[in-house]
């Protein structure tokens, strides 16, 4: 029997059977992508590129709100019903631009390679942070919204709806209700896209730079992603910084 088993193993090896190929095949699928790069320095040898698209930038939300408030204020400055044609045209243009802004806001990614940290669609454009400028990296775990906070948000939403109804019925000003109703499909689209495209956005990563640009509020660049991606981003950036 031992002789038969040995002969069988010898035949399998001759036919090209590999005992570890099955184990390797089972671990190929992964959410984030890695790739070999050339060494940054002789100290650390080969490093891996790391890229993830499961990320959102709070800076984009700030731009989103600024654009919304400016457009909202301009549209409300038009009188109803005297300037109804301009008002409806403005709503149409605003909704179209709002839609493309949503698509651009969610077309995000982070790439860490030998050249630096690359942020895609950060403030709606490509942005690069060289390793020489990185001073520190901080991880912050985001807490889930409590039931109390959800109740307060619900009460606030009801109060806003009541105020809008009072403006429309009591004062005859229909600009605000029409504008908010026109935005409802876009807001639902944005909520659905975020829910289906991203997962487990529970960790915020802060990258502090050594020199703050004159137009920046703070030297921190932040992003929100899942915990595993945040840990890998932090580890990859620190390894590259050590090789400078």
Descriptors:
single chain; 244 residues; PH-domain like; 5-stranded antiparallel beta sheet; 4-stranded antiparallel beta sheet; 7 helices; elongated; transmembrane helix; DUF1673 domain-containing protein; transmembrane; membrane
Task: Provide a quick synopsis of the model.
This protein has 244 residues and is of the alpha+beta class. It has a single domain, classed as PH-domain like (Roll), CATH 2.30.29. Helix content is 50%, strand content 20%.
How are the SSEs placed, and which strands pair?
Blueprint: H1 2-14, H2 21-26, E1 33-36, E2 48-52, E3 55-56, H3 58-76, H4 84-105, E4 109-113, E5 116-122, E6 125-129, E7 134-141, H5 147-170, H6 175-197, E8 203-209, E9 220-225, H7 227-242
Antiparallel strand pairs: 1-2, 2-4, 3-9, 4-5, 5-6, 7-8, 8-9
Helix pairs in contact: 3-4, 4-6
């Amino acid at each position: 029997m031992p002789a038969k088993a040995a002969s069988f193993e010898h035949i399998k090896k001759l036919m090209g059977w590999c005992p570890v190929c099955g184990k390797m095949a089972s671990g190929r699928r992964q959410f984030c992508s890695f790739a070999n790069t050339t060494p940054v320095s002789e100290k650390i040898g080969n490093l891996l590129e790391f890229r993830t698209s499961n990320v959102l930038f709070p800076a984009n939300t700030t731009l989103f709100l600024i654009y919304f408030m400016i457009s909202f204020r301009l549209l409300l400055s038009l009188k109803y019903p005297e300037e109804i044609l301009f008002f409806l045209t403005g709503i149409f243009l605003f909704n179209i631009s709002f839609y493309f802004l949503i698509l651009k806001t969610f077309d995000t990614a982070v790439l860490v390679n030998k050249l630096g940290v690359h942020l895609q669609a950060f403030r709606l454009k490509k942005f690069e942070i060289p390793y020489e400028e990185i001073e520190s990296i901080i991880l912050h775990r985001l807490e889930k919204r409590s039931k109390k906070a959800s109740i307060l948000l619900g009460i606030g939403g009801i109060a806003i709806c009541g105020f809008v109804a009072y403006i429309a019925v009591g004062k005859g000003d229909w600009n605000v209700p029409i504008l908010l109703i026109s935005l409802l499909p876009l807001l639902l689209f944005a909520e659905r896209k975020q829910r289906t495209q991203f997962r487990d956005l529970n960790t915020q990563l802060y990258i502090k730079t050594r020199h703050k640009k004159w137009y920046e509020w703070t030297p921190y660049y932040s992003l929100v992603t899942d915990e595993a991606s945040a840990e890998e981003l932090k580890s990859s950036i620190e390894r590259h910084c050590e090789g400078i």
